[in-house]
Structure formats: C-alpha cells, structure tokens
Amino acid sequence: MPASATFARPIRKMFATLGWAWSQIWFQSSLTTPLELSRIGIGALLLFQYGLVTPYVLEFWGDAGWMPREAALGYIDNVWMQSVFFYFTAPWQWLVFHVFFLLCCFAFMVGWRTSWVKWVVLAGKISYDYRNPLFAYGADSIIINMLFVMCFAPIGRAISLDRVRAVRAAKRRNLEAALPPYASPWAGACIRLIQIQMAVLFFYTGVKKLKSEEWWNGDAIWLVFTMNDYYSGFLVDLLARQYWLSSAGTYGTILIELAFPFLIWQRATRPYLLAAAVFLHLMFLFTMQLIFFALAMIMGHMSFVRPEWLTSLGETWKRRIGKMEMIYDGKCGFCVRSMAWLLAFDGLRQIKIRNFRTNPSRIVNNARLEKALYLVLPDGRALPGFEAYRYIVLRVPGLWWLVPYFYVPLISRLFGHPIYNWVAANRTRLSAMRMSVRPASWRARTKGSA
Amino acid sequence: MISRRWRVHLMYFALSAFLAWHTIAMLLAPVPNNNATVGAFRSLFQPYLTFIGLDNSWDFFSPMGVGYQFRYVITDAVGKEHTFVPIEQFAWFQPTHRWHEKIYDQLMYEPDIYSDYHATFFCRKHADLNPISIRLLARQEEVYWPENYLAGKNRFGDDYVILNVLKQFACQRGGQPAVEIRGAVPDAPPATR
C-alpha cells in the first residue's frame, strides 16, 4: 500500500467522524414546536409592551421627545446602528410605523404570513432600540437574538394560522386528508442556536456575579429587596428575621446559572435544569416584578422543551377528552367548507368525521342530520348544532380562541344560538351563494372541464 | 448547471458556515475587550454584533450598585413646596413603568443633557400650581442591613438615603422652556416626605 494511502485513510476517517459529530450537533431533524412557543410568547410580549406605550411614541422615540435625534445620534458610534426612525420627518410617520409594527407583532404571535412578518418585527424592534438606546437592556437583546434566529428558521409551520391555512387547503380537496407535522434539520439547527444563546447567557451571568462581593457574601438577595425599585415590605421583614433565606437565594441563583450551561444538554438532567431556570425567572417576575425580562427569558427556555414532551402532552390531552365524531352533510358545500375550517384548527386531530350521506350513523338518524350536524361523544351522547360546537371549542386547544363566543352567557344566547340556527336553516342557499360569487373565468373553466 | 448532489453539499457548507459564525459571535459578545487577541476577533465581528443587537455583556445584577430614585420639588407662587415622585404614577405591571424608570435613571445620570426637557415638561404639567421654580433631585439609597430593620429603623429614613440636587430651574409663564438657575446649589429638602 502506498504511504500516501496509509496517511489518507485515517485523515479521511477523522474528517468523516468530525462531519458526523457536526451533523449530530446541528442538523438533527426536529419539529418546529419549541420555536413556535417562543414565537407566540415573544409576539405577545412585544404586542403588550409596545401596544401599551402607544400614547408615548412621540415622547419616547420622536424628534420632539425627551431624546431628540441629535442626542440619540450621540450614542451612535458606527454605521451599523440603524433605525428607521432616523429617516422619518413628520410625526404621522412615527404613528403609522408604530401601528404597522403592532399589527405585525399580532400577526407574528398568531403565525399569519410569518415568513415575512418576522422580518418586520425584527427590523422594528432594532429600530426602536437604536432610536433610543437608553431604553434597551438585557431583555431587549435576548428578544432580538431570538427574533434574528427565527427570521432564518422555518417558523409558522405549527401552532399558527399559516398551518391552519395549509391544512385547510388540503382538507378542501379531501376532508380526510392529513398534513404531516413539519420537521427539518434546519429547524433543529435554529433551535440549537437559541439553546446555545441561552447557555452562553447563563454562563456569563453566573461568572460575572462571582466577581461581585455581594454575591460572594450571600447578601445579594437582601440588597435587591431593600432597593426602592424592588422593595417589598413582606420580604424585607422575612429576610431580616431569617437571613439564611437571603444567602440560600443568592447562592442558589449562582448555582442554577452556572449549572445550566453544562447540565441542560443531558437528557436526564434537562427537565430539572429547565424547571429550575423557569422557577428562577418566575421568582424574578413575582417578587421583583420584572415582567418583560422574566417572560423574555422563559421564552428563551422554551427552546429546550423537547418536541416529544409536547407530543406526549397532546396525546394525554387527547386521551383524557376521548374520541369525538362529527357527523356532517357531505352534499352541502357550505357544510364541507365549514368542516375544512374547523378541522384545520384541530391540530391534535381529536375530531373524527362522518359524512352521513355515504356513511350513515347508527346513533343519529338521517332525518335529524338533515337539520343540523351532530357530535357523537365517547359515551354515546349526541349533541346537535350549536351544542356540538360549544362542546368542542372547550376541548380542542386550537379552538380556544372561540370560547368567549360560546360561553359568555349573553353573547352565546343572544347571538350564538340564533346565528347558528339561521346558518343551519339556510345552508343550501349559502352553498349556492358561494358558487355564484366565484369569478366568471373560474365558472367558465369549471363548465369547460365538465 | 450544478448537480443536485453538489447543490446539497454547497447548501450544507453555507448553513454550517453561518452556524459557526453566529455561534462564535454569541460566545465573543460578552467577553471583556481588554485582551488584544479578543479585541482583534471582536473587531471582525463588531459590525455583525452591532447590526443585530447581539452586543451585550449579560451582566445582570452584577455588580448590584446602589439604588436611586428621581423626584422633583415645585415651589409655587406663595413659596410652598410640592414634592413629586413621578415613577409612582405608573403601576409596576405597566410597560410604561419600565420605560420611565430608564428615563429617570438617565436623567439622574446625565442631568446636563436631559434636565432641560424634563424641567420644562414638569413645569407645564403643574401649571395649575402656578410654579415659580423646580428642583430636580436624586434620592440615593445607602446600604441598609437586617440589624437596622430589626432595630426599627426606616429603610427610607434620613439615615439611609441622601438627597442630591441635580439642577434647579425657573419655570416660565405660558409654557415657555424653563431656565436653569445657575450658581449656589440649593439645600435639599428632607429625604422623607
């Protein structure tokens, strides 16, 4: 064997091993659900934050506010600190952008047109932070980092309106169709990036605390609660009488922050470290009232939630609720389209369907089904029309947003029942109406193909 | 035309390069810049770190520092003083609380830059008091220990806080900008209201 081949083989083997390890670290196929949870949380947080400061937009970020453009530019030390607000000239431009940003935050939260909305949210957040750099602190950086990764990630593929639209499109062709959950190696890589970010953050936070005397001495927790910003009469009284609690809290915080970056990766220790980190930030939320910071960190922790935990949670929920069968009229176009909508929100696939025209039910006779759809429950009960919807909106997580319409007494009695009954009585007419509003070109095409 | 196999390889390489680059940036961002090697690396990554807002040292609550609270005193036409603590107007759960905390922190930190705007703003806000002058104050909190608490001392009593006068302004009629009163720094009022 030539000498070159003798050397080449182990080198090639080494590279192959490195490549395999690299792929194992980064490119393991994963569902996007951890990213989607972060997306929903961050969208809600930004919407809440920036929505409630709407009356202060011009005061906080405007040229006539407390931070004039010249003052803001004093903090800008390079061309990379960009903000769209530097290009605005009239107050209405600030307001229009702010409203647009809020709409995008809402769309981001519900996962509507996520593929481009996420870029607007990122650009908007960076713009707010650089227009008034004094406002931004750690929590804003965490949010921006996660948004940045999400911009490259395939988000909006689960727990989103984009997913609903995709499933609905498939169901419109065939109600029985099932769209498999989206998973990809790139989703896994993006989740890994956020995980590394969180681990790095914890590591540096813990290490830097060790440099401070108050953390070494175990006094930090006491000092925090005696500061005016976080003052709590109850906690000061408790800690003064039981000072060991302050030391335990101080050292416990450092322990969690230093253990997190090392033990969060192992399958066996992850649940404990994740629970400890979430607990730590819930403490920040409830005792120090750091809402924005605590929730931003918890959204970052979501990246460590294993998709299989969520899947198993969904399965448990599904088992607990039991099977539900919806019986509908397959001859009524409106009913089929409504079913496609409804089933698109049923991400856990809890609802089974039956077209009584082709597959009659033994529990509900056809005469009753001519009048309304029915929901058959595991115990054999059959709920008609409005009652059927009322039952499922509480039990299908994707439909929880409809709960107020079906359960707020006045709304459901005054509007829910009458609207449902009217739609049920006029469903044939509604189906025909839908056909008649289709564009002429479509009708011509349909006729031609027929 | 690049073959499908090579396109996959190329994509894999590009994505791997991005992941490696971003990971190094994340690791590098909080490292202190006083080391020459780190500094050299940082200068390479700095535009990226700045542009995407990743430039953060992640030093939450370290060091703890001392607490400050902003307040102001308006002197009305009959010489009566009215003390206000503006942050108390905002409930802790409102997002505006956080933003205003930052604003007042910065005002206390750099009064030369931000006090003109705020003095005018507060004079206008309290126009019904017929204000003559306004004093902007920073209440600095001293360390307070459990033994002080158990001895019955008030955390925000005069022993544990110091009031510093940042600036004094004369309020103008008709909402005109307040004019700074230079010279002798006036006495601070009692720390506790």
Topology:
The complex is a heterodimer of chains A (450) and B (193).
Chain A: H1 3-26, E1 30-31, H2 33-52, H3 57-61, H4 69-75, H5 91-110, H6 114-131, H7 138-152, H8 161-173, E2 183-184, H9 185-210, H10 213-216, H11 220-225, H12 233-241, H13 244-263, H14 270-288, H15 291-301, H16 307-321, E3 324-328, H17 333-344, E4 351-355, H18 366-371, E5 374-376, E6 382-384, H19 385-395, H20 403-407, H21 409-425, H22 427-436, H23 440-449
Parallel strand pairs in A: 3-4
Antiparallel strand pairs in A: 1-2, 3-5, 5-6
Helix pairs in contact in A: 2-5, 2-7, 2-15, 5-6, 6-7, 7-9, 7-15, 8-17, 9-13, 13-14, 14-15
Chain B: H1 4-28, H2 36-51, E1 68-76, E2 81-84, H3 95-109, H4 111-125, E3 131-141, H5 146-150, E4 161-170, E5 179-180
Antiparallel strand pairs in B: 1-2, 1-3, 3-4, 4-5
Helix pairs in contact in B: 3-4
Quick synopsis:
With 450 residues, chain A is mostly helical. Chain A is 67% helix and 4% strand.
Strand elements of chain A, count: 6
Broad structural category of chain B? alpha+beta
Our count of domains of chain A comes out at 2
Supply the number of structural domains of chain B.
2
Order of helices and strands of chain A: HEHHHHHHHEHHHHHHHHEHEHEEHHHHH
Number of strands of chain B: 5
Query: Main beta sheet of chain A, described?
Result: 4 strands, mixed
- The end-to-end distance of chain B, rounded to whole angstroms, is 79 Å
* Integer-rounded radius of gyration of chain B: 26 Å
Query: Helix content range of the residues of chain A, please?
Result: 55-70%
Order of helices and strands of chain B: HHEEHHEHEE
On the 0 to 100 scale, the average pLDDT of chain B is 88
The strands making up the biggest β-sheet of chain A line up spatially as 4-3-5-6
Strand order of the largest sheet of chain B: 2-1-3-4-5
